[in-house]
Every structure is written in structure tokens, then in C-alpha cells.
Amino acid sequence: MSIFCTFFLQVVLLSSIFFSAPNLANANMVDANIMDTKEEKNAAAENYSPQNSSSQNASFQLTIKDAEEAVSKALQEAGVGENISASLTSSRAAVLYYHHRPLSVQLKTIKFDKTANNWSANILILDNDEVLSAIPASGRYEFMELIPVIKKRIKHGEIINAEDIEMRSFVKRSLPKEVLRNRADLENHTPKRLISPLRPIRKEEIQMPDLIHKGDLVKIFYKNNNIEISTQGEAMEDGEMGKTIRVKNIASNKTVRGIVTGEKEVAVGEIAVGGVANGETKNTPMEEDKNKTNKEKYSINELMNDANNKEQK
């Protein structure tokens, strides 16, 4: 009976060595040496000590997060990639090891599969040079990318400032195609709709701030090399720089379409052809609106008549 109990106890202790969850830690060092021989592997297991201080008496602990950070660093140093995030799949315990003194970690026999994005390693938990635990661990890794996000909810009309932005890492393969990747892409813009914080933002979700708001009195003008005509109008919708909007000519009560060129300024005719938004050449708004009602078409003659009437007065 005593022989059986002794054998059973040895099996339990060995299982705690080889099936205990992975691990790295509040480590003072991460030494990604390669240990290839069976002798080295066996030595690591034999040096394992099951003496694990209770959580009540321990001042130091090794968490899964500590372990994942150490493995990530080791994979980067092994040439897997520059921005790697490793996860442990062989353990669910939040804390892997408690101890009454500072801990350090060494990784041995770290291996990885670039096709499956898997890794495995032997993890040694050390108190100075003493091996406290030797744990075989495995998991997955992902390539990460730093992306600008906003820190708080921001709604349409509110300007995104530099202090509203921070950089966060996200799994690269999961990012949307049109995601914004630079801080400058967000600064001094406003959301088209409410944007929630701490998530990737797509290009289509933001715009330049509106320079004109619905109901604003605006200057409608036509300009070419030889002539400039202007009159007063009322904006029928909001518009940022370069956007085509509808404005009502107050003198004629007709609605025309023009491009926002500045604060409370709308250009019609030739000045609107140059593509204010991106410097691209476009057809005139009159050409684009051939199938629209007369009320929505430009009328340069009306602007000229307005100007003449003002001079006569």
C-alpha cells in the first residue's frame, strides 16, 4: 500500500510539472537561449521545485500577462516580426506563480511556426540562479499594428484635437481596409456621425469641419480671368471645404449648386471647375446638372443681373 501511495504522489508531482499552465512574469530578464538536447530539457524538469508560496504570503507573482509579454519579446528577438503579441493557450490561470522574492524568467527551446502562427517553449521561473519552476508552454501569436484612436466619444461638429488621440495596437489581419493609420488623418477633422472611443476608425467616418451650416448667409460668386461677380445667398445644407452644396440666391429666389471654397463662401461657374477639394479637374456644375430642374441649375446671368442692379441702386 505504501509503495502504491508513493508512486501515486510521484505521478501527481510530475503532472504538475508538465501540465501546469504557462508563464512568464514580472521578470527582470528574458533570456531566449535555445536548449536543444534531451539532457538540458531533463535537467530543467529535474530542477523543478513544487514549493510555491501561497498568495497570502507572497509579495511577487507571475501572471499570464507577464508570460505573454515575455514570449512576445522573445519571438521578436528570434526574428518573427517587429510587433508581435503572443498568447498562452495552455493555461487559464490569471496568476501562474507566487513568491516572496523577485522573480526572473528564462525561455528555453523556443520554437515557432510561421504558417500556423504557433509557438512553444520551456519556461524557467528563477529566484536569482535558482530554478523554482520549469513549465512547458505553448500558444499563438499575432502581428500587430499601431493605430490612432480617440480617447472619448466625439460627435459631428466637434473637432478632434491632438490631445483626443492615442496610439493602440490591434491585430493587423483584423483591421478594415480603409482604416486610418496616422494621427494626422484624424487631427482637425470631425466625425460624420458619433464615433465611439478606443477603436479603429475608417476614412469614411470623418470629414473636414463644416465651413457652412444650413441657414447661413453666404457669398455666392463667379470668377474667371476677366470677371468676378458675387451676390448673397442662403445655405440649404451644411458643407465642408470642397463639398458641393445647394444655396438659394436671395435676389432671384432660385436654388443653385456650388462648391464650398472658404468660410461662408460658395463658388459657381469656372472657379468651381478646378476641383477645390483635391485639385482635380471636374465638369462644371452646370454640365453635371443637365438633368436637374432649372431651380437647381446655375445661372451666371442672374448673378450678373444682381450685380448690375446693385450698381444702379
Q: Would you write up a description of this structure?
A:
By secondary structure, the protein is α+β, with helices and mostly antiparallel strands. It folds into 3 domains: 20-144, Thiol Ester Dehydrase, Chain A (Roll), CATH 3.10.129; 151-207, no CATH class; 210-312, SH3 type barrels (Roll), CATH 2.30.30.760. The protein is built from 5 helices and 17 strands. Strand 15 (244-249) and strand 16 (254-262) form a beta hairpin.
Strand percent estimate: 25-35%
Identify the overall geometry: elongated
The portion of residues assigned to helices is 10-25%
Number of domains: 3
- Give the number of DSSP strands: 17
CATH architecture of the largest domain: Roll
> Gyration radius, to the nearest Å?
34 Å
Number of helices: 5
